[in-house]
Predict the structure.
Amino acid sequence: MCGIYGVWDRQREPILPATWHSMAACIAHRGPDESGAHEAPGVVIGNQRLSIIDISSGKQPFVSDDGQIAVVQNGEIYNYVELRAELQAQGVEFRTSSDTEVLLRLYEAHGPTFWSRLNGMFAVAIYDARTDELHLARDRMGVKPLYIADDGQRIWFGSEIKVILQAGFPRRVDPGALHHYFSFLFVPPPLTMFQGIRHVPPGHAVRITRQGMETQAWWRLSDIQCGPEPDLDEWCEQFRYRLSEGVRLRMRADVPFGAFLSGGLDSSSVVHSMCAHSDHPVQTFSIGFDDPRFDEGPFSQQVADMFGTDHTLERVDPNMIGLWPLVVWHCDQPHSDVSYMPMYRVSELAARRVKMVLTGDGGDELFGGYQRYADFFSRPEVADYSAGQFSQAYHDSMALLTEADKRTYYSADLARQTQGLDSHSITAGLFAEVPDYDRMNQALYLDCRLLLPGNNLVKPDRMPMAVSLEARDPFLDPALIDLAFQTPGSFKVRDGVTRWAYKHAVQPFLGADLTHRKKQMFTVPIGEWFKRELRTWTPDFLLSDRTLSRGLFQREALAQMLDDHANDRANHTRLIRSFVALEMWHRMFIDECFASAPTMADLGAPEPELV
């Protein structure tokens, strides 16, 4: 895994070395092992490398023998061994064993048409001097990030938004993104909180010439067609096989690796498969808290003992509030989700012993793992909804605030800037892409297109990368994605049971107790802290002159919301988290542009104390 960056000038004006050096430096945490760049008239593409495969010979960029083509990538191509063998059978010669060289040779053989042959997580940039074109591509589900900005003369891209900001792109808030943030608790892609900076959508490629750029999909999740209910035993066999193969491919590495192990269904299933493919104990990692409501320690230890892993369990202080600025800085955007903080801590733990881990990310969104699916579809009226009623009702069930409630907090100026916006339009647009899916699969499709790239895949990218650790997710193997959306929703949630068929598949090796244990949230009790230990800190921060001077929100509405929460008249935990993360983001990206993660003191806020 690495970080990539680049600049394209339409007039072929030279790119100052200081510009791209600063772009590289701000993502050195993603790839501290090596740094490299390729320069041509009016273009630079570069890479910060975290060495995982072919340690000695895999330095990027990879350049063709004639010097005309240069390739950089962030991520891993898991089926590079098979692709390399195919090319060798056709007479292609290789200089290294790197997966990035496979990308170069595929491009030489096929041009920018080979993306669908890749099984991997990737963001790739290829400059071709023969045609004077730059090609960018991102993996199917958006595991690896890729951002882009265009000011009319120059196009910037990078693995993190801060790369583009370091190049001097203007730092301005996008009011529409802010508005949608208060529905989804994150900024829905392809938007970002910065005007003019966007995601390259998952499964898309960008072709850039001196005249402009065009973006096209090379893969669409909506192209997978759902079939009838299969035979359960046959389905379980297919699930186990595809998960096992996804794990096997993701164990390809030339460095020590392990797995995050919470003791939940997804991580336990992954670790079981890892053990089956390993001739030595798998290294596993988890953290535990003293509060049993949030402590996964005993469950992870149970699974570790069951499969004989080399387990590292560290009990940590749940007071992670001091990490909040670091989390926001690494994400480049505000996220209401505070589970980023414990994710950072378990990543720190793993990085002491390994350079790569496997995770269980993606299993919930593909196979119906969240309790909210069962809760929503248990409502009797849902079966009778029209398409429009279903879309609106499902959106309302997951939105933080309604459109009307948002405007009770907005200042007159922000209300004017967001006039006419309705976040349901985003949800409705995604549902409209799969009108023939059953309702459950429509809900899962929405989460795969919105929640995964917008939040749930951001977390296992940014937090491990913050400590130079690579995370791989076997559930997002293309074969498992195909299986998931070929399977009707009735196999995913049935009679209130989430991951219904999936649980049938794994119970033989996980046992009934572990398979059916209630899902536990990986988080900290911040809602309680807002009422007690942070009762004065939170209003001091959110009602400060500095915060209110932005002219975004009404003081009276914020004060009433905080008071209602502190006095148990309402539970505004998610809303308070959203406002705090947003103000931290303003202070570190709009007021200033920090070159490294700031502290609370750097942001002009006292360090919160939890007694």
